[in-house]
Design a protein that fits this description.
Blueprint: H1 5-14, H2 21-25, H3 43-52, H4 54-63, H5 69-73, E1 92-95, E2 98-101, H6 111-117, H7 123-135, H8 140-153, H9 157-166, H10 168-185, H11 194-231
Antiparallel strand pairs: 1-2
Helix pairs in contact: 3-4, 6-9, 6-10, 9-10, 10-11
């Protein structure tokens, strides 16, 4: 069709319903190139100029408002793929590309413990949820405490939970680290009245402060003091 004028004339006369020879044979018609494009130059040269030279981009957009630079050089424009976003952990939902806390009457999930023990159905996670929902949240003081605590907890727990899922060693370290806290919380099971829940709750908080902060600090200063004595 392109090289034999007689064949082209015959085709055009007998098949006027087709817009081109490509349509007749079932092929996609190749894109042409604009007159300003040199066919001997790599088309990527023009694309790079368009992307990197503001003056060239301005000239092209002003003179060819109905096409893209890819149309002009006869190339398919690459498809822009949205970046993949990781799945949010339990207790959070994806909102505008960010893992946000799920609002619920009892609060979100126990993210760190769930990641440490591998499932929301793990006995340790169920235990934490039962203490929170059936004991702490059953009192006005406990509800107020959980409101403030959740704001603090969920500011960092999604990051910690993601680190646990990505690093098995860190996951085991967290599991070991929260075991004393789980043991201390078992005291709350004996609380029934609001006064007992508040009293036991304060006791558990003080106990955990002692285990996780005071005891390590005392050990640190004792070791430091011992080293100072040995140096003399």
């Amino acid at each position: 069709y392109n090289n034999e004028p007689s064949y082209k004339k015959w085709f055009d006369a007998n098949f006027p319903e087709y817009s081109s020879i490509y349509q007749a044979v079932g092929l996609e018609e190749p894109k042409g190139i604009d007159p300003f494009v040199d066919p001997n130059i790599d088309p990527q040269y023009y694309i790079d100029r368009y992307n990197n030279e503001p003056s060239y981009k301005k000239w092209f957009d002003a003179n060819f408002p109905d096409m893209t630079i890819y149309d002009a050089v006869g190339l398919e424009e690459p498809e822009i793929k949205e970046p993949e976003i990781g799945q949010c952990g339990p207790g959070t939902d994806l909102v505008d590309g960010v893992c946000a806390i799920v609002d619920s009457p009892q609060g979100g999930g126990c993210l760190i413990a769930t990641a440490a023990y591998g499932s929301e159905m793990a006995p340790q996670v169920q235990f934490l949820r039962e203490i929170r929902d059936n004991k702490v949240m059953s009192t006005a003081a406990g509800t107020s405490f959980m409101t403030g605590f959740n704001q603090f907890y969920y500011s960092f727990s999604p990051t910690i939970a993601d680190m646990e899922r990505e690093n098995p060693v860190f996951k085991e370290m967290v599991k070991i680290g929260i075991t004393p806290m789980l043991t201390s919380l078992s005291i709350m099971s004996a609380a029934d009245s609001e006064q007992e829940i508040v009293g036991y709750g304060i006791g558990v908080i003080l106990m955990n402060i002692g285990m996780y902060f005071v005891a390590p600090a005392m050990l640190f200063f004792s070791i430091k003091k011992a080293k100072t004595r040995l140096s003399f």
